[in-house]
Amino acid sequence: MLKAFKQFLNEKERIPEKNIPYYVKWVLDCCRYFNVPETQLLTNDQRSQFLTHLAKNHEDWQVQQADRSLRLYGYFLSRAQKNEEGATADLPKDWKKIEERTYDIRTIQELLGHTNLHTTMIYTHVASKNILGVRSPPDK
Prior knowledge:
Layout: H1 2-12, H2 20-34, H3 44-55, H4 60-82, H5 91-101, H6 105-112, H7 117-126
Helix pairs in contact: 2-4, 3-4, 3-7, 6-7
């Protein structure tokens, strides 16, 4: 599955070739952290817990890269599981959707006025579900 994920990252030309091994590393590290197989979708709580763990010993850019890799891997797995053969032929049309939903945590931190990235991570996790459908003025 990881080989197909590498191919997925490479074909999209969004991730520089030199960074792909790091994206795979974050996925493997997270799976090892929770002792789950690589084919298992992680919950948002697991992803958040892993990123909080990473934030203790890693630079902010590394935590951001890990977050992006885990989100992309979750997207990749969900699409691969829908297609029993594991083909990724229908992924390119949905790529833009995942890119549009991926925000830079530093930008969010700055907008919220937080000094600590961990605080922003907590708030963004809580705010990830917009039950009431409230839109902020910049989104209009």
